[in-house]
């Protein structure tokens, strides 16, 4: 019986070989679907859609790497070498970077297959619209993350080293006769495609569809929020303001208005601010070696330093601790007025010397190494809008939004006299503090063309290691695919 090909390895370009039917039958039951009937019922469509969401949970996507590696590459995270993991990324060694290429294209292909077969499905039109909107959202997210890893952003390009974006594959591949060997599309064309996917996703999705539980499935507000982020990277400032405002009005995610509520939100199984969040079920535990909990902390339980769980591979740099107002004397931590400092605790000595560690991912679901992952939080919309308004010269509006974040953290509001470069510096500073260890820092510096000022060595924006290396197997097997400069 012919099956949907649930995993198409990226051998030539993105898809050359297909798994056998037997292999397809070995994956989780929700992913094995008869190709002849896969799109004829809402249940089958949902099963196929789950196969796209499922890949986002892998460790080289949002299970760990897209959250932790941006902190290691930049100036937020310091590798402890307790397990050896993320040490090379922290040192910005050649080739120590993102590796999301293969899994991203597998997920893109799954989305493409669904999109290709939707028109012929006998499912109700409302169901088809919802599935289409989610597939476009996911494809847009996956291509955006590929661009963040392997290409420059439209506003910050090292021209002499620029070899374009990534290959754009928009048709589902289910057989070898359908394989193509595409070259890299231009940066602009990639961003146009991402924007087109998300724009259509906004049209197809709603914020009230009870069949797909928010924030674990894409909604209209989530698509608006993601397109706000994409537009921020592209420098489309007016679009950022509009989309952020629309996303804030969508009713998906609740902004926490007090310091106490903000800290408590990080102790909930599902973050109340999440506009899009990955949910991990009991059988999807990443485990003690690669989960975000083990990556960030040795603690098993908040405040209990006698029970060791993880390795604490990546801890805050001294510079970040200073920015948060955190000082340490022996085993005593002193904090300033910033409530976000309460999300950092002294870990255990079970893996080596105790370090100050982030506790944003600490078994909130009640299970060690099984935290949900907020991909988009509503707080980002205020900071996206603040930065865009700054670039548009709307300093008062920008200041109002950055002050929302400051006062919610327990800090005083900035005076209206703060304008110009000082205001931009504060907006970027608040992004750093607000989203520390959530996977934003490296990308925020990169999209503005800023150097990585860090220990043990700083990395200039013009250094080729700013971009990830495309997997060498892809380059060897696809003559049309050019490797990034320097590799």
TrEMBL record:
Signal peptide as annotated in the record: none
SusD-like N-terminal domain ranges (all copies): 25-232
Keyword Cytoplasm attached: no
This protein's UniProt keywords: Cell outer membrane, Membrane, Signal
Cellular location(s): Cell outer membrane
Domain RagB/SusD: residue ranges: 363-447
Matching InterPro entries: SusD-like_N, SusD_RagB_dom, TPR-like_helical_dom_sf
Family named by the database record: Belongs to the SusD family.
Record protein name field: RagB/SusD domain-containing protein
Lineage: Bacteria, Pseudomonadati, Bacteroidota, Cytophagia, Cytophagales
């Amino acid at each position: 019986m012919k099956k949907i090909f649930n995993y198409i390895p990226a051998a030539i370009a993105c898809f050359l070989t297909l798994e056998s039917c037997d292999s397809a039958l070995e994956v989780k039951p929700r992913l094995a679907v008869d190709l002849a009937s896969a799109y004829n019922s809402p249940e089958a469509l949902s099963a196929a859609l789950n196969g796209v969401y499922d890949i986002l949970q892998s460790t080289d996507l949002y299970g760990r790497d897209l959250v932790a590696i941006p902190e290691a590459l930049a100036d937020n995270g310091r590798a402890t070498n307790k397990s050896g993991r993320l040490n090379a990324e922290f040192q910005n060694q050649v080739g120590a970077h993102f590796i999301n290429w293969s899994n991203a294209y597998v997920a893109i292909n799954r989305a493409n297959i669904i999109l290709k077969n939707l028109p012929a499905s006998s499912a109700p039109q409302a169901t088809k619209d919802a599935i289409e909107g989610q597939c476009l959202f996911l494809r847009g997210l996956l291509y955006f993350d590929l661009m963040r890893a392997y290409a420059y952003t439209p506003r910050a390009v090292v021209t002499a080293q620029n070899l374009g974006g990534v290959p754009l594959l928009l048709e589902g591949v289910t057989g070898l006769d359908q394989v193509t060997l595409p070259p890299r599309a231009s940066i602009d064309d990639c961003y146009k495609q991402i924007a087109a996917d998300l724009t259509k996703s906004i049209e197809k999705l709603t914020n009230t569809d009870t069949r797909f539980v928010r924030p674990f499935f894409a909604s209209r507000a989530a698509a608006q929020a993601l397109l706000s982020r994409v537009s921020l990277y592209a420098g489309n400032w007016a679009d950022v303001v509009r989309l952020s405002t629309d996303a804030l009005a969508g009713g998906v995610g609740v902004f926490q208005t007090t310091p106490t509520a903000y800290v408590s939100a990080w102790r909930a199984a599902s973050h109340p601010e999440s506009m899009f969040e990955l949910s991990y079920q009991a059988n999807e535990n990443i485990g003690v070696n690669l989960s975000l909990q083990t990556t960030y902390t040795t603690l098993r339980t908040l405040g209990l330093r006698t029970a060791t769980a993880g390795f604490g591979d990546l801890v805050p740099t001294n510079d970040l601790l200073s920015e948060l107002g955190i000082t340490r004397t022996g085993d005593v931590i002193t904090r300033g007025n910033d409530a976000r400092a309460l999300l950092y605790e002294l870990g255990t000595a079970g893996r080596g010397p105790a370090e100050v560690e982030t506790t944003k991912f600490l078994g909130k679901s009640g299970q060690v190494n099984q935290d949900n992952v907020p991909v988009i939080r509503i707080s980002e919309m205020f900071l996206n809008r603040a930065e865009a308004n700054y670039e548009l010269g709307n300093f008062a509006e920008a200041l109002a939004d950055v002050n929302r974040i400051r006062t919610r953290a327990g800090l005083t509001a900035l005076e209206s006299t703060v304008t110009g470069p000082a205001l931009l510096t504060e907006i970027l500073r608040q992004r750093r503090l607000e989203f520390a260890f959530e996977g934003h820092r490296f990308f925020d510096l990169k999209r503005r063309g800023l150097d990585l000022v860090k220990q043990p060595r700083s990395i200039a924006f013009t250094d080729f290691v700013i971009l990830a290396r495309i997997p060498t197997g892809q380059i060897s097997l696809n003559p049309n695919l050019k490797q990034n400069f320097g590799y």
